[in-house]
Design a protein that fits this description.
Layout (H helix, E strand, L loop, with lengths): L6 H7 L11 H9 L3 H7 L1 E5 L1 H10 L3 E6 L1 H6 L1 H5 L5 E4 L2 H7 L8 E6 L11 E5 L5 H13 L4 E4 L9 H7 L7 E4 L2 H7 L5 E10 L9 E5 L8 H6 L2 E4 L11 H13 L1
Parallel strand pairs: 2-3, 5-6, 5-9, 6-7, 8-9, 8-10
Antiparallel strand pairs: 1-4, 2-4
Helix pairs in contact: 8-9, 8-12
Length: 266
């Protein structure tokens, strides 16, 4: 598939606030192209799908440029859409929205937003650090868990799935607006912040039910099948584990994150 066209096509999308039952092939090509990381990086935009997520984006602004929504959604959120200053809101037919969506069952609204500038890590409070998380649903859920527990920073290794993958964004349920994602090599990151206690989740660590509450430090979660790398384990100051009562080999990364945060932070 050839690459999507440039920003002039996006500008074409914004020319009028009207009913547009059929988008041009170029417009569709641009939007669906953003489902690929290389085009998100090239054009600096991402797709956010879902009724609640688009509603939150309109309420906060958060870099939203264009919203594509069905008539039903727009009627349900008429005042919000009308007050969306500087944001182009276009009504499209459900079949058009289906063309734009990466989901098997499309939502009623989809937004294009700018990817925010990269931010530096701030060594305060508790942070999560993730190594080689591959599933976008896992990453999105972990960001949502971080938001639930008041964690404001999630550090991802460069080989984690992209935080602006459409499925990741949907899985955050809007939490991506409140949690900063920082990309760092995890062993180097731990070396730089060696003064902070780090808690590596592993199958052979200390029982988290016997671990003191954490008010500052880094909680480390590894790849869904392989866990944390040996180098990361060597550089972490504490190894922790969730006690197993049954026969399951492992836990889903997001589930493990929720259990660990619930035990160590509350």
């Amino acid at each position: 598939m050839p690459g999507p066209p440039g920003r002039d096509v996006l500008a074409e999308c914004r020319n009028s606030r009207r009913f547009d039952p059929m988008l041009s092939k170029a417009q569709i090509k641009y939007i669906t192209g953003l489902q690929h990381k290389k085009y998100r990086q090239k054009f600096g935009q991402f797709i956010a799908e879902g009724d609640k997520i688009v509603q939150e984006l309109l309420e906060t602004g958060s870099g939203v440029k264009t919203v594509f929504a069905t008539r039903e959604w727009l009627l349900d959120h008429r005042e919000l859409a009308e007050k969306a200053a500087g944001i182009e809101v276009l009504e499209v037919a459900p079949e058009v929205l289906k063309q734009l969506s990466s989901l098997s069952t499309p939502n009623r609204a989809l937004a294009l937003a700018d990817i925010p500038p990269a931010r530096d890590f701030v060594p305060e409070g508790v942070s999560l650090a993730l190594e080689t998380i591959q599933d976008p649903g896992n990453l999105g859920t972990i960001i949502r868990i971080a938001d639930w527990f008041g964690i404001r920073q999630v550090v991802c290794s460069p080989d984690c799935v992209d935080a602006y993958n459409a499925k990741t964004i949907q899985s955050t349920m809007g939490s991506f607006q409140r949690v900063t994602v920082v990309i760092r090599d995890i062993p180097q990151f731990l070396e730089k912040y060696a003064s902070l206690p780090s808690y590596a989740a592993t199958l052979h660590g200390n029982d988290i039910t016997q671990t003191q509450k954490v008010s500052a430090g880094i909680i480390l979660i590894g790849n869904e099948s392989r866990g944390l790398s040996e180098e990361t384990l060597r550089r972490s100051s504490h190894h922790i584990t969730i006690p197993r009562l049954g026969q399951a080999e492992s836990l889903n990364a997001a589930v493990a994150t929720g259990i660990i945060c619930g035990r160590l932070l509350i």
